[in-house]
Amino acid sequence: MSSYPTPAGPAAGPRAARRRLVRELLLVAGLFTVYKAGRLLSTDRADEALRNAARIWDAERALHLPGEGAVQRLLLHGDALVTTANTYYAGVHFPATALFLIWLYVRRPAHYLWARRVLAGLTGAALALHLAFPLAPPRLLGAARLIDTAQVYGPSVYRAAPAEDTLANQFAAMPSLHFGWALMLALGMIAATSSRWRPLWLLHPLLTLLVIVGTANHYWLDAVVAAALLGAALLFVPRPRAGDDPGRGSGPDPETGSETGSGTPVRGLPRPRSTVVAVGAGR
């Protein structure tokens, strides 16, 4: 008589997979809602945000960082170029991150759990810094002499007057989550794939950096701080090792770490329940 482990009870099957998917969607949506609501707590601190902006601007000059205006002048060579940059800023950030997580959920479950935790840590740290250090972007700082390209050329995701903006906190420039999330996307795809072309994913954060600076939505230091916070999150969240991902499937169970229809556990998480099925009994 021989035996082999199989998933038991509701741990397997399309219904369980749907429940896990719904649970993940609710979790991610809940975290995002808390983040967005938390950011709005500092929208009435305009004077403090502008004082901090002047400090950051002076610090960048003291560090001899290149002026943000140099990047903006490149964008202003043509209306189509600056409009494309504005569209990239407004339309790529959230969809790209969502597609990244969805792809990992379906194809690389262990890497999905890792990326979700890293992004949650990065975003939580960013929220704390937004509340502790409100910062106006360079487009709102007169000393920077930069154009608000989104307001002039469109499209814009912000109201012209920050005090009237009830959907976004315009005083949350540091750190730049546009850059932080883009960098995590690139690092995550490099870690989760094996193509020799995977370093090209780094073009996404590079392009994002040029866009956020050229459109005057962020300072260079906003990206530096985002990269530092991401580095800290990566140090605290263990990266999946070779063999942790069971491959293609319906997605991971955050409670068991296993993929639907697979008894393979994700390293560092509990093993899925299994029963022993007798083979050849009664013969």
Any descriptors?
single chain; 283 residues; mainly alpha; two-stranded antiparallel sheet; 10 helices; globular
What report would you give on this structure?
54% of the residues lie in helices and 4% in strands. The chain is mainly alpha-helical and 283 residues long. It has one domain. The protein has a two-stranded antiparallel sheet with strand order 1-2. Helix 5 (93-107) runs antiparallel to helix 6, helix 5 (93-107) packs parallel to helix 8 and helix 6 runs antiparallel to helix 8. The radius of gyration is 23 Å and the shape is globular. Mean pLDDT is 82; it is low at 1-11 and 248-283.
Summarize the structure.
With 283 residues, the protein is mostly helical.
SSE order and pairing:
Layout: E1 2-7, H1 14-39, H2 46-62, H3 68-75, H4 79-91, H5 93-107, H6 109-132, H7 149-153, H8 177-192, H9 203-214, H10 220-236, E2 274-279
Antiparallel strand pairs: 1-2
* Adjacency order of strands in the biggest sheet: 1-2
Q: Could you give the order of the helices and strands? A: EHHHHHHHHHHE
Cα radius of gyration in angstroms: 23 Å
Broad structural category: mainly alpha
Strand element count: 2
- Largest sheet geometry: 2 strands, antiparallel
